[in-house]
Amino acid sequence: MRFELKAIGLDGRVESLHLHGLDEASAVQQAQSRGYTVLAVRPRMGFSGALRGSQDRFPVALFSQELLVLINAGLPLVDSIQTLAERERRGDFRALLDRICGILRQGNTLSSALEQFPRAFSPLYVATIRASEKTGDLGPALSRYVAYQQQVEAIRKRLVNSAIYPLLLIGVGGLVSLFLLFYVVPRFGRIYEERGVDLPFFSKMLLAWGRVVEGHGALVAGLLAALVIGAVYALRQPAVRASIEGALWRVPAIGDRMKLYQLARFYRTVGMLLRGGMPLLSALQMGRELLHPTLRSRLAVASRAVSEGRPISASMDENGLTTPVALRLLAVGEQSGNMGEMMDRIALFHDEEISRWIDWFTRLFEPILMAAIGLVIGTIVIFMYMPIFELAGSL
Question: What is the Cα–Cα distance from 80 to 94, expressed in whole angstroms?
C-alpha cells in the first residue's frame, strides 16, 4: 500500500515522500531509517490502486516454508527471521520482519509479535503459532500450515484453471461481436441506405445501431469502456461480491457445491488446529469465518450444544453442517480420539468430490457456452443478410 509522508530531511527542508508499506508504521520506519523526521502520513490510493482494491499481501506461505527450513537447520528463531529480513528485497516486507525481530528481542512470543500485524498475518495463522508455543512444536506447526495452504491452493487453482477456457471463449466471442457491431454493421447500413432497400424490423434496429456507431463512435466506445471499468470496480467491492455470492447460494445445484466447498475448508482448518493442540471449541470458533453467514449461525448453535456435552457428530448433523460421509468419519473420530485426522480426511474426500463435479460441469458448460456465442454471432449475421435473402427469394 502506498503512503504519502510529510517529513523534514537532513537539510532541514520539508519534503513529500511516497513510500510502500504494509501499514503506516512500516512506512514511517522506512522514512526514519533514511534520516527523515516524519510530520504527517496518509494513505495514497490512486485510480489503479482502487481498481486492484487491495494492497500487496505478505507471502505468509513462503515465509513459513523458509522459516521452517532455517529452524530445522538449527538456527534460533530470532536469527532465522533476521536472516529472512536481510535477504528480503522489498522494503516494506523487510521493515515488517525487522519489527518482528525487535519485538521478539524484547522477550515477547512469536504469536504476540505476529498479532500486531493483522494485515499480514491472519488470525488463523496467529492461532496456529500460539497453539504450537504451548506444546513446543513450532516446526511441525509450520509444516502443518504449509501443507494446509498447499491443499487450499490446489483446489483454488483447479477452480481457476477450469474457468480459463470459458472466459477465453467469452472474450473471443465478445471481440467478434464488437467487430461486427462496430465495423461491419455500419458499412452494411450505408449500402442499404444507398439502394433504398425495404428492411425487416430487426434489421432496421440493427442498422439503426450502425448509424449511431458511425455518427458517435467515440462516444459509444467511451461508454462501453466506462461500463467495463465500472463493472470491474464493482466486482472488487466486498458488498457487491457478497450480493453475487448470496444469489449463487440460492441456486440449488451451485449453492450445494458452494456449501460443500466451504465445509471442506472448514473441516480442514479445524483439523489442522486440533492437531496443533487447540481445544475443540476454540478451533470451531476460529473456523467460523470461513463459512457463509447462514452456516455461521448454525455453527454457533452446534458449538453451544458441544459445550453442553453433546457429541460433535450429532451437534453438527442436527444443524446441517455434515454430509453422510462427514457424519460417519466424525463418529469414528469421537470413538478413536483422533478428531483432527478425521476432519482432514473429511476435507480430502470432499475436495475430490468437488474436483469431479468441476470436471463434469466444465464438460457440460463449455459446449453450451460455445452454442450460445455462436447463436449471438449468427443472429447478428442473419439480421445483416436478411434483406439480401429476401431480395434473392423475390427473383
Answer: 13
